[in-house]
TrEMBL record:
<dbReference type="GO" id="GO:0015833">
    <property type="term" value="P:peptide transport"/>
</dbReference>
<comment type="similarity">
    <text>Belongs to the ABC transporter superfamily.</text>
</comment>
<feature type="domain" description="ABC transporter">
    <location>
        <begin position="16"/>
        <end position="267"/>
    </location>
</feature>
<keyword id="KW-0997">Cell inner membrane</keyword>
<dbReference type="GO" id="GO:0005886">
    <property type="term" value="C:plasma membrane"/>
</dbReference>
<dbReference type="GO" id="GO:0016887">
    <property type="term" value="F:ATP hydrolysis activity"/>
</dbReference>
<dbReference type="Pfam" id="PF08352">
    <property type="entry name" value="oligo_HPY"/>
</dbReference>
<keyword id="KW-0472">Membrane</keyword>
<dbReference type="InterPro" id="IPR013563">
    <property type="entry name" value="Oligopep_ABC_C"/>
</dbReference>
<dbReference type="InterPro" id="IPR050388">
    <property type="entry name" value="ABC_Ni/Peptide_Import"/>
</dbReference>
<keyword id="KW-0813">Transport</keyword>
<dbReference type="GO" id="GO:0005524">
    <property type="term" value="F:ATP binding"/>
</dbReference>
<dbReference type="InterPro" id="IPR017871">
    <property type="entry name" value="ABC_transporter-like_CS"/>
</dbReference>
<feature type="domain" description="ABC transporter">
    <location>
        <begin position="333"/>
        <end position="583"/>
    </location>
</feature>
<dbReference type="InterPro" id="IPR003593">
    <property type="entry name" value="AAA+_ATPase"/>
</dbReference>
<keyword id="KW-0067">ATP-binding</keyword>
<keyword id="KW-1003">Cell membrane</keyword>
Amino acid sequence: MTDETVNDNETNDVALSVRNLRTYFYPDDGTVKKAVDDVSFDVRRGRVCCLIGESGSGKSATAMSIINLVDRPGRVVGGSVTFDGTDLLKLDAKALRKVRGARIGMIFQEPMHSLDPVFTIGEQLIETIRAHADVTRDEAAKRSVEWLRRVDLPNPEAIMTAYPHELSGGMLQRAMIAIALCCGPKLLIADEPTTALDVTVQAQILRLLVRLKDEIGLSILLITHDLGVVAETADDVLVMYDGHIVERGPVEDIFDRPRHPYTKALLLTRPIIGRKLRRLPTLHEVMREVGDGEIAQPQDWSALTAETIEPADADGANGGGTGGVPADAEPILTVRHLKKYFERVHGFGKGEGNVKKAVDDVSFDVRRGETVGLVGESGSGKTTTGQTVLRLHAKTSGDVIFDGTDVFSLSSRKLAKLRTRMQYVFQDPYSALNPRLKVGFAIGEALLHHKMATKRDVMDKVVETLELCGMDSSCVNRYPHEFSGGQRQRIVIARAMALQPEFVVADEPVSALDVSIQAEIINLFSELQRKRNVSFLFISHDLSVVEHICSSILVMHNGRIVERGSVDDVFNHPQDDYTKSLLDSIPASNPRYRKIGR
């Protein structure tokens, strides 16, 4: 179904009508970026319309164009946006401000960036209500408390007095929803509202949005790159690629009968619970790209290698990252009764006591050539565990034994030598790389420091490692900002692998990546393990990724390991209530199996 196929009938059923919208960006280098290029679609009354696509596809630019909030150097250059019979693009700033908030609500991916840190949640709610309604401050305060209660926030009277930094991510997003809806809008634009949230909190927020839609007759334009969110919430779907809507239709049709090659590629490259392959298909394997951003038809599956599409063995030995490790293999890492406590910072929502038990009596093993998944929500202690194991934090108590050596008994000199064998891959590749250093130097300096290369051969070893990680020799003379997120993640992995480590802690290495890039990085970890027999502690909150790449799982909650076992045992026979709640919160892989709504 092409971009031009838009239903112009049944106008009474349409809450928002976008026609031929064009938004271009004009950077200083004289080029023109057509972020939104002749886009047309409708959002129907009382329905959830999901706009899906990867980073750079034009999703957020479309959302900001609808309410005419595109920042320079961007500009809406054409088209119309009709809401309640009015073209919003023709309104002056004053008239448009009356529409925003009162008739169209907006929530964003990062509520901390949308809320003013110097005002309480209550003050920001009251200000919003009084800006659009002729009510007293007391009346606005009463309505604010009602809305905080309506979005299921506990103790709304106390939250009225809290500042944004005192709330958790899920609480902040609920407060943002209350602010967006407190003036009774008929349309809500939600731009990646759950991307930064844990899986259980995401499920709660999505359930809340669907419930409010039904209660107040809301129409929702939900922007996301997450196909699970689409499967759980959407009535209608728009697929965006390179500034164009390339496919549209009811959610069931998009998942069961996708027509466009890009839609098919998105659906095929994602890891799905219960479908464990040797190797995930990647975007480039599923489809061929041709010039000028056009997309050819997807390759026939028979053209793909058997390794790409063959399922893993029942025992997982051929699956991503297991390496077929024998059950009696010797551990390369042994952690016993590890504790890491921090002084607690007091504030709203903090418990009593002066100590935060981030890691509280944790024990586990990682065998040679094995990938162990460490899963749990934000604040569960996953990252602190990984960093303490590598002695990036001092321990409170307990033992960490690496290949027979007590990590915390080593002198600084001996620890520096050990660090070549134990490496860390960070979640945010951009902050992990010095923006002032070229990639070749960033990787090569560690090799020179540890005397694993000479000045004469260091660049050869850098290029060799980059190529191992799917990059080429041209990267060495470029800076981090010149690469995409997926490329930067490969560079960070290459920097860790250049030292030929035997054990790597990978901390949420794919959480910020689009689904097609995520597949490439997941495959890279599996390939590195097969080629180098590396052991991984793979930290993640995404259970579908963990199932694909790991052989065993540790489930962490409130600083403790509450469940452990093989992937199959934990996924198919969970014992702990927390594990069951995590599994129950995984978004559906297809709208037929959705748990939210209907």
